[in-house]
Amino acid sequence: MFLSAIPTRMLYLGMLERVKSDLNKALPDSTDATSRASVTNFVAGGVASMCSQLLVVPVDVISQRLMVKVGGAAVSRLVPATRAREGSC
Fold this sequence. Notes:
By secondary structure, the protein is mostly helical. The chain has helices at about 1-25, 35-70, 75-85. The radius of gyration is 19 Å and the shape is elongated.
């Protein structure tokens, strides 16, 4: 768990700063500072969280299924079996 937290946090913070910077450039200068900060922080936080979770959640789901799988099925058989049972994204 700890090893996946470091890359996830790096991706989150990098994306957060990038989106905040792009939004600050895109918003009109007439926007007051409080509104600008609220909008940029809200949107940037959502986008950054979504990007980092798209990377981590599938890996966590597979690792949890491997931990509870009786008989130790190989990953090469587990992923297609999960897709067949639950469907693909």
